[in-house]
């Protein structure tokens, strides 16, 4: 079994295009649209990246970036103690319940 954490980044969706019905986001429509096209991925591209990322891992834990690439421990600001606690929690939550 593989555990994958994916950070898709900015994805161009209805919310970033000002079509969410939220008046506050609609006010920022020009800015979010411009930033979305410069910094973001289309929903189709994001879906393809995430699909590939989920199905390219074997057993173990993986961290993926917005393009679905394995980034391992890069840019991971934590301690070994925090990693151990997270792993213990993950095992407890994913183990079969009695």
Features:
alpha/beta; 4 helices
Describe the structure.
With about 100 residues, this protein is an alpha/beta fold. The protein has 4 helices and 4 strands, in the order ββααβαβα. The protein has helices at about 25, 30-40, 45-55, 80-95, and strands at about 1-5, 10, 40, 60-65. It has a two-stranded parallel sheet. The longest helix is centred in the C-terminal third of the chain and has 15 residues, at about 80-95. It starts with a strand and ends with a helix. The mean pLDDT is about 80.
Quaternary form: single chain
End-to-end Cα distance, whole Å, is 20 Å
Strands, count? 4
Radius of gyration: 18 Å
Q: Which structural class matches the secondary elements?
A: alpha/beta
How would you sum up the global shape? elongated
| Percentage of β-strand residues | 5-15%
- The average pLDDT is 78
Overall helicity: 40-55%
Helix/strand order, N-terminal first: EEHHEHEH
**Tally of separate helices:** 4
How are the SSEs ordered, and which strands pair?
Elements: E1 2-6, E2 11-12, H1 23-27, H2 29-39, E3 41-42, H3 43-55, E4 60-64, H4 80-94
Parallel strand pairs: 1-4, 2-3
Nutshell version of this structure?
The protein has 98 residues and is an alpha/beta fold. The protein has 4 helices and 4 strands.
């Amino acid at each position: 079994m593989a555990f994958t954490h994916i950070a898709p980044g900015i994805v161009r969706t209805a919310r970033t295009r000002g079509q969410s019905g939220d008046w506050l986001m609609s006010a920022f429509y020009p800015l979010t649209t411009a930033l979305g096209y410069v910094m973001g991925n289309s929903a189709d591209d994001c879906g393809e990246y995430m699909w590939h990322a989920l199905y390219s891992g074997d057993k173990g834990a993986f961290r993926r970036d917005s393009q679905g690439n394995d980034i391992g421990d890069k840019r991971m600001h934590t301690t070994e103690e925090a990693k151990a606690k997270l792993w213990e929690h993950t095992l407890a939550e994913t183990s079969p319940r009695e």
